[in-house]
Every structure is written in structure tokens, then in C-alpha cells.
Amino acid sequence: MNQANHPRRDGFAGRHRRAAETRAAILRAAEDLFAQAGLDGARTDAIAAAAGVNKALLYYYFKSKEDIYLAVLEEHRQAFLDQALNILSQKGPAAPVLLQFVGTYFDFIGSHRHFARLFQRLMLAHGKGVEKIARRRIVPVQRALTALLRRGIRRGEFRPSDVGHTAVSVVALTVFYFTAAPIIHIVSGRDPLAEGNVRKRRREVLRFIRHALFTHPEAVAL
């Protein structure tokens, strides 16, 4: 018998590993189903079946279907939070820091294609889950971003603006493209998520921000 499968020799490390693998499988299955059907439309039976576990096991790891949904978003958002805050806390000129942040955010959304749609669905659903994620994962980045915008305005790098609205606009330039991809496909007749089109969108977002906000757009390389 394989030692890793022996009930007496597996020990705590083996149980912990299996638990982590099971939880990850549930989250992967839930992400796909939530992206397709939303929080209300996805069924726990379908999540369990897709994850290869029994339904009772879902409630061993999560209290409710909403908790599974929030855990999916938390998995994604935590991966971005530390990176974003490290970028936004950099000293020196604000303009290149802003471009680095936007480029990193775009790459994050682009490599986690379900995230924008999942978060959009959660915002439309309202509920305590939105407030929980907003306070833990969005507010710190929003504060750091508005602080960077104020610094850039004080230094004369950015045009004067309402930094709250500007921060929303900066984020929306990235998120909207991915949430609206099905409509863009219909309207334009092209696949907005094709690799070449995603690269082009990234360049255009950075170019737009540079010319919309920077007092000397050509002085800062993309």
C-alpha cells in the first residue's frame, strides 16, 4: 500500500494537504458555475458534482453558498492586493507609478477572466458580502490610489481633478472591457478577449490615461 494513502501513516500533513486540495477543487468548480449563472443561478448540487465531492462536504468547508462565492473572490483579490499596495506606495514621481499600477491591474483582470464578471454580479446582488470585500480588499487600494493622484496633482504631474471620480474612472477603464466583452464582441464583430485585442486594449488604456491626466503626456513612457 502506498504510504501516502495509509490511514495510520498519512498523519496531519497528509490530511491538511487533502483538505486544501478539496477546498481548492470546490472553489475552481464554483468559480466556473458562478461566472455562468451568478450567485442565485448556480446550484450547490452542481458545484459539488463539478468538484467531485458530496454536497455535505461543501458545508464542511463553507457555511453557505454566498460564503463559497465570497471565498472565490477573496482568492483572486488577495493575490492582487499586496502587489497593488506595494506599487502604489512607491516614492518619487507619481506618473510612472500610476501607469505601473494600471498595467498590473489590467494584467490581473486579464489573467483572471471570471473575476470582473463575478464581482459585477456580487455588486448587483448587494448584501453584506459586498461590504465585507469592499472594506477588506477595495478600500485600501482606493485610498492608496487617491493618495497617489493627490501627490501627482501637488507635484504638477497630473491635471487638477476630483481624485475620487478619477480613481473610479481609472479602474473602470480596465474592468468594463472584460465585463462587457460579450457585448463588445457583438457590436464590433471581433473577439475582445483574443490575445492581440487584449494587448491592444492595454496599450490604449495606458495611452488614454497618460493623455487624460498627465500635464506632460509624452514625457512619461508607456
Write up what this structure looks like.
- By secondary structure, the chain is mainly alpha-helical.
- It folds into 2 domains: 1-62, Orthogonal Bundle (Arc Repressor Mutant, subunit A); 64-219, Tetracycline Repressor, domain 2 (Orthogonal Bundle).
- Helix content is 77%, strand content 0%.
- It has 10 helices and no strands.
- Helix 1 packs across helix 2 and helix 4 packs parallel to helix 7 (128-154).
- The model is unreliable at 1-8 (pLDDT under 50).
Offer a quick outline of the entry.
With 222 residues, the chain is mainly alpha-helical. Helices cover 77% and strands 0% of the residues. The termini are far apart.
What are the defining features of this structure?
222 residues; mainly alpha; Arc Repressor Mutant, subunit A; Tetracycline Repressor, domain 2; 2 domains; 10 helices; 0% strand; globular; disordered N terminus
Examine the coordinates and then state which fold CATH places here, giving the name of the CATH topology of the largest domain.
Tetracycline Repressor, domain 2
Q: What's the name of the CATH homologous superfamily of the largest domain?
A: Tetracycline Repressor, domain 2
Using DSSP, what is the number of strands? 0
- Percent in helix: over 70%
Q: Secondary structure elements and their pairing?
A:
Blueprint: H1 11-41, H2 44-51, H3 55-61, H4 65-88, H5 94-111, H6 113-125, H7 128-154, H8 163-179, H9 181-188, H10 195-213
Helix pairs in contact: 1-2, 1-4, 1-6, 4-5, 4-7, 5-7, 5-8, 5-10, 6-8, 7-8, 8-10
